[in-house]
Amino acid sequence: MRKALMAVLATAAVLIPATPPAQAHDRSLRDAAPRYLRIGSAVAGGGHHVDQPYPDPFPNDRAYRKVLAREFSSVSPENQMKWEFIHPGRDEYNFGPADAIVAFARKNGQVVRGHTLLWHSQNPDWLAEGTFTKAELRKILRDHIVTVVGHYRGKIQQWDVANEIFNENGEYRQENIFIRELGPGIVADAFRWAHQADPRAQLFLNDYGVDWPGVKVDAYHALAQQLLAARVPLHGFASQAHLSMRYGAPDQLASVLQRFDDLGLHTAITELDVRMDLPATGVPTADQLATQAVYYKTVLDACLAVAGCNSFTLWGFTDKYSWVPVFFPAEGAATVMWDDFGKKPAYYTLLRTLARA
Ligand code: XIL
């Protein structure tokens, strides 16, 4: 009798759709997402982690790796492919940590976003403080791009070729050694070299502060048009989307992304997090968590609304390893999970939104 009842219940469980919350609890972000859309996370390691009282996260934290594999279909090395890590000496490359991420991705059916090739920050001292002729500097950049992109040829879905090349006024950043010394034309060369080294990788411009219309977005739009007109292999424009609850949710982001989509480019969200001012307790209020969920949803909805937005990446998924408290004093709690990987309202909002898309 009991057996018969169990059988009936088992059949019913298959036939009767579970209520959304129950279903939502069982699925992961990557399972809930539409097939064309990759859901990614940064892979914690290097950078600010080096000064924290814990071992390098990705190689050492098994529980972390389990969530990373379960929830995400794309991974981005948080620091492990930046110049200072992967190219620590002029004639020295260190591929080990990034290779481990690429191998993990392959094993878990994930794509990899390469980050990054032309940037003003996190460059090794030998580069930042060296003296080079223009010809030498150009060769250094070319060799780096050909070597690194070539090393991962066929294994990278999208490369952030140029990162943060404009300042807030939409001018080329003079802190970028290559732009300062060689002129803005070097950006096109970087794309050309990357394309030669891996013709299948989608090549991106990537920046923060491009979530609202404004001069910075206009500068990227003009550059994208120029590069495309010159047949430079540019394939995408990405918003990092490092957001703070001090400034409001980016409710015009879809229209920004659409401008680039209209040029025939892919678009992506590459580094989403939503930081907040923490109360004295250090614990966000229920209201703050609800507001944070709205921010996350605003960004996801923008990506979902734009046909060519095919990649949506969080800059880490747990507060345990977030860069935010280290870089933005008094702000924190920016990711979708607590230190123990417990899920915040923002996580469930993303899950529901993906499941309905
Ligand atoms: C951050 C990392 O998260 C930190 O670990 C590191 O110390 C500094 O860089 N824009 C980018 C990312 O393109 O590479 C930055 O990552 C965050 C801002």
How does this structure look, described?
- By secondary structure, the chain is an alpha/beta fold.
- The chain is 44% helix and 16% strand.
- The chain has 16 helices and 10 strands.
- The protein has an 8-stranded parallel β-barrel, surrounded by 5 helices.
- Helix 12 (215-229) links the parallel strand 5 and strand 6.
- Helix 14 packs parallel to helix 16.
- The longest helix is centred in the last third of the chain and has 20 residues, at 286-305.
- The protein starts with a helix and ends with a helix.
- Bound molecules: (3S,4R)-3-hydroxy-2-oxopiperidin-4-yl beta-D-xylopyranoside.
- (3S,4R)-3-hydroxy-2-oxopiperidin-4-yl beta-D-xylopyranoside is lined by residues 47-48, 78-79, 163, 240, 271, 323.
Summarize the structure.
By secondary structure, the protein is an alpha/beta fold.
Distinct bound molecules: (3S,4R)-3-hydroxy-2-oxopiperidin-4-yl beta-D-xylopyranoside
Helix-residue proportion: 40-55%
From the alpha-carbon coordinates, what is the Rg to the nearest angstrom?
21 Å
Average pLDDT: 94
Beta-strand segment tally: 10
- H/E series: HHHEHHEHHEHHEHHEHEEHEHEHEH
Write the layout of secondary structure elements.
Elements: H1 2-15, H2 20-26, H3 29-32, E1 38-43, H4 57-60, H5 62-71, E2 74-77, H6 83-86, H7 96-107, E3 111-118, H8 125-128, H9 134-151, E4 158-163, H10 177-182, H11 185-197, E5 202-207, H12 215-229, E6 236-239, E7 242-244, H13 253-261, E8 266-277, H14 286-305, E9 309-314, H15 324-327, E10 331-332, H16 345-356
Parallel strand pairs: 1-2, 1-9, 2-3, 3-4, 4-5, 5-6, 6-8, 7-8, 8-9
Antiparallel strand pairs: 8-10
Helix pairs in contact: 9-11, 13-14, 14-16
This protein binds (3S,4R)-3-hydroxy-2-oxopiperidin-4-yl beta-D-xylopyranoside.
